[in-house]
Structures are given as structure tokens and as C-alpha cells.
Amino acid sequence: MREGSKAENPRARVWDQFLTERDREVIGIAGYGARQGFGTRPALLVVDVNYAFCGDRREPVQNAILRWRQSGGEEAWDALPIVSDLIELARSKGLPVIYTTGGEREDKWDRGSWLWKNSRSRERPTAELDGNTIMPQIAPAPRDIVIHKQKPSAFHGTNLIDYLFLLKCDSLIVMGTATSGCVRATVVDAFSHNLRVTVVEDGCFERCQASHAMSLFDMNSKYADVLPSGEVRTFMEGLESGLFDLPAGSLGKA
């Protein structure tokens, strides 16, 4: 990955360096990547920003994955302030803030297919921390909603779509991890439910740079608008406050 490409060209996208000339030609002719725009009643969805995917300290990903095999390394810690900033803005505007994280039995019996594709999937982290605990920098507030899931999509086997109906949401603003896994699966399912989706480009992260970049590209091409946090913040600031009837203030397992 060529470092500094965006600094040299601020209009560059993170995926540009991975595209061939043929790719660019095909995309242009086929019409993919049109801007769909924001919805009018968005919820902010924070996908799996927990110890398992961030680790317990800032360090290069090659070191982080020795102790937390799913960690995004330094990219995770770069994204945390951006995620925190948009969460605080959403709360100030009275927008729904919804988190996802994992949930499983102590003996991992219910992990199912997660055990099939990773040789370290039965490991426990060396730190005395629950990997499913949401990072303290963005800890849920009493009026936020926390959804515990067992598969990549936040919609699979959860009450998420029911809550979005209850809140009368027409759109999602999504950030979190892993870009190519749970974020992408959630975005595709949201699209399948006819929700407009915005993905916060610098609020997403994962271990593999190529997977991160090309997953953002695919989502932007077909399922969502992938935008920098500054543009998302400007949109959120312009929303009317108090649009939603939020929970009264008791965190519980959803």
C-alpha cells in the first residue's frame, strides 16, 4: 500500500491504488457509484468496536494480533476518536445510537461456523478482559441501544430491524469493524431492507489493508455512500434535534 497517497491528492479514495485501468473503465460505463444521499431519520450504528477488534492498547497490528487475533492494530486506535466524536454528536442531537458486539457461551459451543475458518478461534485473549466489551472510550450511555449478535450482520438473528421500525428510521450511518466482515454484511442487509446507508470511511477499520479498501469500494459502488467523517458530521449537525422517541435510559441486552 502506498503511504501518503491521500495527502498528495486529497480527492483520492483509499481504494484507488487497487483499481486497474480496466476496473475504472468498467465502473464508469456501468454506472456504479452514484451518490444516493442521506436519509432524513438516521440512526448511528457502531459495529463491534470492542476489545476483540481494538486490543487493549495502541500497537502495530502485527504485534496486536499476537494477543488479540482480530485486532485492527493502530488503525483501530486512529478510528476511535472519530467514532467517539460522531457518537457524542448523535447523542447531542437526540439521534439513536446503536452498538453491536458479540455474545457467546463461555464454552464457545454456540460459535458454530466461526470455528471453521480460523485456526486460533478457540483461543482466549491473554489480557484479563472480555473481548466483547465495548471500548471504554465509546462506552454506551443509558439511552443507547446495545445489540448482541453471533454472526457478521447486525440484522441476523437480532431485533435490529424491529428497533429501526419502532424508531421510524429510514437510514443508517455505519462505522466500526471489520470493514470486510461485519460492517459489509450489515450494510448489505440494510440495503436489502431498503434503508439508505452511509459508511464513515475513516470510522471503519480492519486488519488487512487491501480488504478494507476494496470493501469500502464495493459498498460505495453498490450499497452505500462511503464518506469522510467531516462530511457526515456536517450532515448530522444540520439535522433537527429531538426527532426520535428514544429509550428512557436503561441499558439491557437486546
UniProtKB/TrEMBL annotation:
<protein>
    <submittedName>
        <fullName>Isochorismatase family protein</fullName>
    </submittedName>
</protein>
<feature type="domain" description="Isochorismatase-like">
    <location>
        <begin position="43"/>
        <end position="227"/>
    </location>
</feature>
<dbReference type="GO" id="GO:0016787">
    <property type="term" value="F:hydrolase activity"/>
</dbReference>
<dbReference type="InterPro" id="IPR036380">
    <property type="entry name" value="Isochorismatase-like_sf"/>
</dbReference>
<keyword id="KW-0378">Hydrolase</keyword>
<dbReference type="Pfam" id="PF00857">
    <property type="entry name" value="Isochorismatase"/>
</dbReference>
<dbReference type="InterPro" id="IPR000868">
    <property type="entry name" value="Isochorismatase-like_dom"/>
</dbReference>
<dbReference type="InterPro" id="IPR050272">
    <property type="entry name" value="Isochorismatase-like_hydrls"/>
</dbReference>
